[in-house]
């Protein structure tokens, strides 16, 4: 089954919330002895002051306290500023070493503190972290501007020649040059000042959006008094809802907590139509209640500020600015791809809607299908058409078995890598587990953290991130984390997940493999630090192993009987793979187009209030099916307002084009073989952003990517 999961990749620029392609720079060996800042008393015992003593510099969570961040940020900002000034004011002739490499090495303490901070801010936040985030977002944005708008520095960078540099160093030089240009180093002094203010405001509003939304999601759940209204949910789901209500101070009731997407997983099973409607409307309206957590005003401000930023930078609109270093390069190229997909998607969704309406009529429902009915009846259509019942499948997907005997096993078969559980590394939450990853020759490769379960302190969705990024120059190896929001089972119960959840796990681990196999000299070009419209390619490729017969046989084991999944059930899963693809593609493409529309506005007066803008955008692109709302509604579209996917949500589809095409190549060349794995690792997973990625793709498959495999994969063409 091919679908884009709920994943958010936050690794790439996790700590750069000011939505630029710039990065705070990497660590340096010499910085801790920097005399100008060494007398700082408050940093004496700060865990970010020196490299972690743990393997691969894994964070010392047993020592890190919330109170360590502020002094580390302040010290780190000062330290990097001094380092950058020294580079800018260096009287020597600018060289790759004394400028680019020096920049790449600057900001050691800051980087160390930020990377842990932003991981915690997503995975285990609290009021202290939220307040710090709010306080420092504009400060970090201003700091980044100080570096990238520094004229002396830019002139130096510009003057450095590529001659004599190795391939990766050349790429790093180009990368820095482009970052300076994208940031506005070419601008006049007055324009630069204006831009700095806009960047700080953007950072503040983006943080404000995230904090509001987290609270809105927390408060947006539906409280149910009578268990009868939950008819259709499993006993485990009901006891989880009871536990959630109790935790929220409502013992004896049931709380249906919201997931971050429009559709809520429980809608599939809830028999009571009124409860379904309540839950759907709670999801849809979570951040537009006119209260303190209403995000509409913030969203509108962000959109206008982004246009202003683009105009200062000499572009027509934000998307044009944003896409210049992506594979797509222009908003037109991205839109063209989406248009090729939206028509067949909507046509298919219409047919699916008819199937659902027929079923409702057969059952004498006496109503017209609404979005809160879709998954409930789609599930029945699926059962009728494919005889496939999610509840029949779930017992074969026990969470740890899926991980170790499925996800890890596939990586072992394809790449030859192995995993060993570690119990000695400190973690930031008792639910987190750790593994060490070994290469095919037995050499240690990376440390891998895993954080399965949902909690109020965690953002919604699933993602991969780094605690330490790989770099030969810095002598660092990858330390990686995958976060999910699976329901924690009641004590003593097995954790059973849906097939969707299974593919999400393969997906996120695909990102992790991209990080694990990183083999770069420079951090900035390492691992998943690639354009956004490429980054989902390795993760989507990895999803395919979920249904590989060899892999599936190994992990899909009934949690009680220990029997492997019967072939008949596997056949059903495969046959149902293109089921509901009209809906799923439409909700995805409409969200992607909505994002692109928000960011291709070229005149301030063309903005409308958030909800009106969304309505007009959907209508204009032919998304007229009210039963298929976008995957994210503007007020809670966190990817684009809080995360780094602004004018970038199309990246999932762009990457999927690469994925579907490359997958056909792998399938046609023997599938799960070590030879294919080595080839994919060589051309795609290990090159980071150190080569031309369009070329890398072509080297892997021997051809340019084509959209047909994607259309085939989603069942739109034969
Ligand atoms: Zn992803």
Structure, described:
By secondary structure, the protein is mainly α. The chain has 26 helices and seven strands. The chain has helices spanning 69-89, 96-105, 108-123, 127-148, 151-159, 167-183, 189-219, 235-247, 273-284, 296-312, 318-322, 331-362, 371-386, 390-393, 399-415, 499-516, 532-543, 549-555, 567-575, 581-598, 610-620, 638-641, 651-668, 674-685, 693-701, 708-713, and strands at residues 222-224, 254-256, 418-422, 433-438, 444-453, 463-468, 479-486. A five-stranded mixed sheet has the order 3-4-5-7-6, sandwiched between helices. Strand 4 (433-438) and strand 5 (444-453) form a beta hairpin. Helix 12 packs antiparallel against helix 20. It is globular, with a radius of gyration of 25 Å. The two termini are 15 Å apart. Mean pLDDT is 91; it is low at 1-37. Residues 7, 9, 507, 511, 536, 539 line the site of zinc ion (ZN). Residues 7, 9, 507, 511, 536, 539 line the site of zinc ion.
């Amino acid at each position: 089954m091919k679908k884009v999961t709920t994943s958010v990749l936050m690794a790439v620029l996790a700590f750069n919330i000011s939505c630029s392609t710039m990065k705070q720079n990497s660590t340096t060996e010499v910085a801790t002895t920097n005399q100008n800042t060494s007398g700082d008393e408050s940093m004496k015992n700060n865990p970010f002051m020196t490299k972690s003593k743990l393997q691969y510099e894994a964070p010392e969570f047993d020592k890190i306290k919330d109170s360590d961040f502020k002094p580390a940020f302040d010290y780190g900002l000062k330290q990097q500023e001094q380092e950058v000034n020294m580079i800018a004011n260096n009287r020597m002739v600018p060289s790759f070493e004394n400028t680019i490499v020096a920049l790449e090495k600057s900001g050691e303490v800051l980087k160390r503190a930020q990377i842990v901070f932003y991981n915690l801010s997503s995975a285990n936040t609290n009021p202290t972290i939220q307040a710090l985030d709010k306080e420092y977002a504009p400060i970090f944005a201003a700091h980044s501007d100080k570096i990238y708008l520094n004229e002396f520095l830019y002139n130096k960078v510009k003057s450095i020649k590529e001659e004599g540099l190795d391939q990766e160093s050349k790429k790093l030089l180009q990368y820095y040059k482009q970052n300076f240009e994208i940031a506005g180093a070419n601008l006049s002094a007055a324009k630069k000042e204006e831009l700095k203010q806009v960047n700080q405001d953007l950072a503040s509003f983006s943080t404000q959006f995230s904090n509001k939304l987290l609270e809105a999601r927390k408060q947006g759940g539906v409280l149910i008094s009578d268990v009868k209204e939950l008819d259709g949910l499993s006993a485990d789901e009901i006891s989880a809802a009871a536990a959630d209500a109790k935790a929220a101070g409502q013992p004896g009731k049931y709380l249906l907590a919201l997931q971050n997407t429009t559709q809520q997983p429980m809608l599939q099973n809830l028999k009571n139509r009124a409860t379904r409607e309540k839950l759907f409307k709670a999801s849809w309206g979570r951040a537009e209640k006119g209260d303190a957590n209403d995000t509409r005003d913030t969203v509108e401000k962000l959109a206008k500020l982004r246009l202003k930023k683009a105009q200062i930078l000499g572009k027509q609109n934000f998307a044009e600015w944003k896409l210049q270093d992506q594979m797509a390069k222009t908003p037109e190229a991205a839109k063209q791809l989406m248009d090729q997909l939206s028509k067949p998607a909507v046509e298919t969704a219409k047919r699916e809607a008819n199937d659902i309406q027929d079923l409702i009529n057969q059952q004498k429902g006496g109503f017209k299908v609404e979005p809160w009915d879709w998954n409930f009846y789609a599930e029945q259509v699926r059962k009728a058409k494919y005889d496939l019942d999610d509840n029949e499948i779930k017992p074969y997907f026990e969470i740890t078995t899926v991980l170790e005997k499925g996800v890890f096993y596939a990586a072992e078969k394809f790449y030859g890598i192995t995993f060993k559980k570690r119990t000695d590394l400190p973690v930031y939450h008792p639910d987190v587990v750790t593994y060490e990853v070994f290469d095919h020759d037995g050499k240690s490769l990376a440390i891998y953290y895993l954080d399965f379960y949902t909690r109020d302190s965690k953002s919604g969705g699933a993602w991969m991130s780094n605690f330490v990024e790989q770099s030969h120059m810095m002598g660092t190896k990858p330390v990686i984390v995958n976060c999910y929001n699976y329901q924690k089972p009641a004590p003593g119960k097995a954790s059973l997940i849906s097939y969707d959840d299974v593919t999400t796990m393969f997906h996120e681990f695909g990102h992790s493999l991209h990080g694990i196999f990183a083999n770069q000299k420079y951090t900035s070009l390492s691992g998943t630090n690639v354009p956004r419209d490429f980054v989902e390619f390795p993760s989507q490729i990895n999803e395919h192993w979920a249904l590989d017969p060899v892999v599936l046989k190994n992990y899909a084991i009934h949690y009680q009987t220990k029997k492997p999944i019967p072939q008949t059930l596997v056949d059903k899963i495969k046959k149902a793979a293109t089921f509901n693809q009209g809906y799923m593609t439409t909700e995805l493409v409409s969200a992607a187009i909505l994002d692109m529309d928000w960011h291709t506005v070229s005149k301030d007066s063309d903005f409308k209030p958030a909800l009106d803008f969304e309505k007009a955008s959907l209508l204009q692109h032919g998304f007229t099916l009210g039963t298929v709302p976008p995957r994210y509604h503007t007020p809670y579209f966190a990817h684009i307002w809080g995360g780094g996917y602004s004018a970038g949500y199309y990246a999932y589809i762009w990457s999927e084009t690469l994925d579907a095409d490359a997958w056909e190549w792998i399938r046609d060349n023997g599938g799960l073989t070590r030879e294919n794995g080595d080839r994919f690792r060589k051309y795609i997973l290990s090159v980071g952003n150190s080569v031309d990625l369009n070329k890398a793709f072509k080297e892997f498959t021997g051809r340019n990517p084509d959209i047909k495999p994607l259309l085939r994969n989603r069942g739109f063409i034969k």
